[in-house]
């Protein structure tokens, strides 16, 4: 039977490409986003819905109304702010016949809270940028600093500064900020799928060209040390399902690989993993519906380059939305 999948956050690359990939696999896709102008709502062969923002008090009631109306077999979220809300909805969603595959609350916190993420990795001895909160700025390392939201997605609100005083000013402007040391090197993302038993597949890709936090040009590669650090990060956070880990590979310094963040959702450049031969979305579907994930189908070829581009989905005249 054809599965009906609700994909949220289709205004961003993760949700847009996940919806499109599910269509190619024969699923009937329901697209959802809080922005009525989200491009994924215009994807052909989908049923679009404008939703309540995850930070709105009406989010949970709105999600239940949507699922009662659209009757999806499962929901896949690509918006990290939604995950705590969806965790609280697992039982009522199940009562509606909607399957979810969500990490446990500690994993959602570790991935969604960048201060907590740094704390978790530091406790496990996994190299990660030194991170302080605004009241600890005097303890920030010397050199370039990054100031960014403690809870954020897609590189929004990220700023680079040169001094602690500049960081102090930025902390007044950015909601719930953290301050981190600046790390340079070859930036990479690992597209991961962790099954319900904790077994993980890791697909590495360089972020060759990044715009607005999105990797628009990616190339797959192999690196045992980077893979080891990614697997250690997955174990430390306890994240399951589709997720991604980001970091840098450095030429010098005491730590060759530095992990900067993990996201409990598909990465925006995951189509590179698919292009390299990994059955990423197909195995995600298997895990979602409690079938065994075949990790042999998640092997991939290195040196496969994928370039994303902007396309026009539709044009119209007169008022819309």
Order of helices and strands: EHEEHEHHHHEEEHEEEEHEEHHE
> Number of folding domains?
3
Q: For the largest beta sheet, what order do the strands appear in spatially? A: 13-12-9-10-11-14
Q: What amount of the residues lies in strands?
A: 25-35%
Radius of gyration equals 19 Å
Distance between the termini: 33 Å
The mean pLDDT is 93
CATH T-level fold name of the largest domain: D-amino Acid Aminotransferase, Chain A, domain 1
Major sheet attributes: 6 strands, antiparallel
Structural class determined from secondary elements = alpha+beta
User: What CATH first level of the largest domain would be assigned?
Assistant: Alpha Beta
Characterization of this structure:
This protein is of the alpha+beta class. The protein has three domains: 4-100, 3-Layer(aba) Sandwich (Rossmann fold); 130-181, Dna Ligase, domain 1 (2-Layer Sandwich), CATH 3.30.1490; 186-307, ATP-grasp fold, B domain (D-amino Acid Aminotransferase, Chain A, domain 1). 29% of the residues lie in helices and 26% in strands. The chain contains ten helices and 14 strands. The strands form three sheets. Strands 13-12-9-10-11-14 form a six-stranded antiparallel β-sheet. It has a four-stranded parallel β-sheet with strand order 3-2-1-4, sandwiched between helices. The longest helix is centred in the C-terminal third of the chain and has 14 residues, at 224-237.
